[in-house]
Every structure is written in structure tokens, then in C-alpha cells.
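Trying the structure run again after the queue cleared.
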Amino acid sequence: MAIVTKFSDLDLTKTYSYADYLLWQFQERVELIKGKIFEMSPAPSRKHQMVSRVLNRYLDRYFEHNPCGLYDAPFDVRLINFKKSTEDKKVFTVVQPDL
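Done. C-alpha cells:
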């Protein structure tokens, strides 16, 4: 598949993989769930950002002393079935969680 620069060029009835997702260079925020495209909400509100920042501080302090990590959004989270494969072309769920 070639690089896609416009969301409207995608076929919303098709099943896509993470390998496809990596070639998308348009402004719209999307997630892949079981290979299907879902548009994400527009940018969060000011209040959401303020609450998120406070939560981030608490979580950051907690994770300083734990093996888990804290990442800033947007950050692609690939939900992988390790029994099948970790190849990008075989990953069909990619999300960008708020927290």
C-alpha cells in the first residue's frame, strides 16, 4: 500500500493492519479496532487537559518507582496477539488511549 495523505482516500469497509496505519499521513486522528477505522474525538477541551495534567503528575510520581511507564498522548498502543504474530501487517488493533 502507498502513503495516504487524505482520510477520504481510505475505504472504510476494508480491514487495515498496523503496517497500513503507519503509511497514513493525514490530519484526522483515527484508531484501528479489529482492522476497522474509527475516527477519534476532536481535540480535548481545556478542562480535560487540566484534569489530565493533574492526574499525570500523580501517575508520574507513582511510576518513578515501578517497572511500568507513563507516556504522553498521542501514543499508539498496539494490542497484539503474541500467539499469532507481532508483525505490523498482522496487528489489527491500534488505539490512542486518553490515560
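The CA atoms of residues 29 and 40 lie 5 Å apart. Worth checking whether this holds up in the mutant runs.
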